[in-house]
Design goal:
The chain is α/β, with parallel strands linked by helices. The protein has 16 helices and 19 strands. Strands 2, 3, 4, 5, 6, 11, 12, 15, 16 and 19 form a ten-stranded mixed β-sheet that branches. Strands 1-13-14 form a three-stranded antiparallel β-sheet, covered by helices on one side.
Length: 507
């Protein structure tokens, strides 16, 4: 099935032949649905902290930082903003002269001066047409205005990365999500020495634009916050691309060459694995707010960070006892209670183990990467959610699932989805080192059976695409996971251009 030229192509991408064979086999077999115990809810996997617990968590984080603790922020930022402007592109490409009443495009037109990019847009339009956006709109030339937002002759927002769009207005000028993430990082992960580590994953075609923007904005931000940024950019590795298949599951080819596609955000487990900091926060690029709306976000970054550290403290103390053999039956019972009540890991097989078997089993479960995931009460926002699932060894554990991982023909599971109380806003903090101070190899903890297959096209031809296990889904399946409820005010994503008109982004 693979030719000599295919092998050469694979070698250039750093992909093993065996990996391609395994991926092609997945197109045949598909991925199994996960077995669910139930949606994670308050009292069953979701921790709802009272005021005292919030204060203790913040205090633990502050102590960590004030005593030389090191942390970093990872921001996936490779996505283009084209989806934000889907409705605008459709209007520009249509025969319509005016936007439909009540449409997304009409909403943009009606509020054109409220966008942070309005001033720059006016400059472009005046240079090109001698008229401002409002003057063009008054002349029934809405299409010229919308076209100037998305196309390359104007702002080119439909082709830029979301990180570089102007989101928020300030007296001193508009800010992009890139800038807001840097500001937030200065307020959450700065060390006692004032170092701020932040890592952005970017697309190769956008790297130079990121570097140019950083060169422009970093000096003033460092001066404002009294910090020194340590900024890294990385790209999704070509070795994590996945092969495309024809509908009959044979390799899809274009001009004789194998076609590969990006493996999805799950490929970023490789980028996360290369970070050196022991604690890493993860947050999507578009979930940002202006300065005046950031108080809850800053507090709950400390909260989930503090919860992580307290859980890690406990696990490491238990692992020290298990490693040295300095434990009693009472210690083992205490560890089982912690495993049940804090980590939400359960397995009936533990009832039948003797003390030495139990110690080995507990040690294996404890000695894994840890993550605390902020989860938000359901409000109809899209996104995966927290569940309790059955693992391959028969135990149950907390996992973040997407709907495509759930068997929608199983009425019991559909009911679980309807009864879910929380969703995943991608607000994580991770502990990446073991109790001996050695970094975990995160790739060893991926569940490779949790990817999925989707239908795409290339040059009008249908192909099957394989997505790797998602970064916060199957790529972190074999982690110790704690779900903590965080306020809805910490989740303010911008999925469409009109989201920028929400009060929180206009403040």
């Amino acid at each position: 099935m693979l030719t000599k030229s295919d092998i050469i192509q694979l070698e250039k991408k750093g992909i093993k032949v065996e990996t391609v064979k395994q991926q092609l086999e997945k197109f045949v077999t598909g991925f199994p649905f996960l077995k669910l115990q139930g949606a994670a809810t308050p009292g069953n996997g979701v921790v709802v902290l009272d005021e005292d617990a919030v204060e203790k968590s913040v205090a633990r984080w502050d102590y960590y930082i004030s005593h030389g603790g090191d942390a970093e922020k990872l921001v996936p930022a490779s996505g283009a903003a084209s989806r934000m402007f889907k409705a605008l592109f459709s209007f520009v490409d249509s025969d319509e002269v005016k936007p439909t009443d009540g449409s997304d495009v009409e909403n943009v037109i009606a509020n054109i001066d409220k966008f942070a990019f309005a001033t720059e847009l006016d400059s472009i339009l005046k240079e090109k047409y001698g008229l401002s956006a409002k003057e063009l709109i008054a002349s029934n030339r809405e299409k010229d205005v919308i076209s100037a937002i998305v196309n390359s002759q104007g702002l080119n927002y439909g082709n830029l990365p979301k990180a570089l769009l102007k989101f928020h207005n300030y007296d001193e000028g508009a800010r992009t999500p890139l800038e807001e993430q840097l500001v937030e990082a200065a307020q959450t992960v700065a060390t006692i020495d004032g170092n701020v580590k932040i890592h952005f994953t970017v697309s190769p075609e956008h790297r130079e634009k990121f570097l140019a923007k950083l060169e422009q904005i970093v000096p003033s931000l460092e001066n404002r916050f009294g910090v020194k940024y340590q900024i890294e950019l990385s790209e999704q590795k070509s070795s994590t691309d996945t092969i495309a298949a024809n509908p009959d599951n044979t390799p899809f080819r274009d001009n004789g060459n194998l076609v590969f596609r990006p493996g999805g955000h799950g490929a970023l487990i490789e980028n996360l694995n290369e970070l050196k900091s022991p604690i890493v926060f993860i947050k999507n690029i578009d979930n940002v707010v202006p300065d005046s709306q950031r108080a809850d976000t800053l507090q709950y970054k400390k909260v989930i960070g503090g919860v992580l550290l307290m859980v890690r403290d406990k696990i490491n103390a238990y692992l020290e006892k298990l490693e040295t053999g300095q434990y009693t039956i009472e210690n083992l019972r205490e560890m089982i209670i912690f495993m049940h009540d804090t980590l939400n890991i359960r397995h009936n097989v533990m009832k039948h183990m003797d003390d030495s078997e139990l110690a080995i089993y507990i040690k294996k479960k404890f000695n894994r990467p840890i993550r605390v995931c902020g989860v938000v009460r359901n409000t109809g926002e899209p996104g995966g959610g927290p569940y309790i699932t059955y693992d391959a060894d028969g135990s149950t554990s907390p996992q973040i699932l997407e709907s495509n991982q759930i068997d929608m023909t199983n009425q019991e599971y559909v009911e679980m989805m309807h009864n879910a109380t929380h969703f995943n806003p991608v607000d994580l903090v991770c502990s990446l080192y073991d109790f001996k101070g050695k970094k975990f190899n995160l790739v060893d903890h991926v569940d490779h059976n949790t990817g999925f297959i989707s239908s795409k096209s290339l040059h009008g031809r249908t192909l099957k695409a394989l997505e790797l296990p998602g970064l916060w889904n199957g790529a972190m399946s074999d982690w110790n996971t704690i779900f903590v409820e965080v306020p809805a005010s910490t989740f303010n994503p911008v999925k469409t251009v009109n989201d920028l008109l929400r009060p929180v982004h206009q403040a």
